Every structure is written in C-alpha cells, then in structure tokens.
C-alpha cells in the first residue's frame, strides 16, 4: 500500500510532461516564425533577381 501512495504523490512525471509541452510549443513557434521569414526572404530575392535581369541579359 505504501508503494501506491508513493506513486500517487510522485510529481516527477508531471514535471517532465510540462517541460515536454513547453518544448513542443517553442518548436511550433519557431517553425511558424521561420516559415514567415522564409516567405519574406523569397520575395526579397525574387525582387532582386527581377531587377538584376536586365543587366544580365544586356538590356536596359
């Protein structure tokens, strides 16, 4: 019976789950942020590439 009481009072598993949930939330936030940054960078590089195109082809 004392073994079951020890298991019921043990909170180490709950702490590990909380840390896991925090890590998952941080990972999701990082992925969303990187996707937004990637989209912005892609637009910037496409804009630069478009503006450099006349110089590459010899046009004005």
Q: Could you walk me through the main structural features you see in this protein, from its secondary elements to its overall organization?
A:
The structure is a single chain. The chain is an all-alpha fold. The chain is built from two helices and no strands. The chain starts with a helix and ends with a helix. It is rod-shaped. Helices cover 90% and strands 0% of the residues. Keywords: Membrane, Transmembrane, Transmembrane helix. It comes from Erythrobacter fulvus. This is Flp family type IVb pilin.
Write the layout of secondary structure elements.
Layout: H1 2-9, H2 12-57
| Major beta sheet summary | none
**Whole-number average pLDDT?**
84
Say how many strands there are.
0
How helical, in percent, are the residues?
over 70%
Beta-strand percent range: under 5%
The outline comes out as rod-shaped
Q: Provide the gyration radius in Å.
A: 26 Å
Number of helices: 2
Which regions contain 5 or more consecutive residues with pLDDT less than 50?
Answer: none
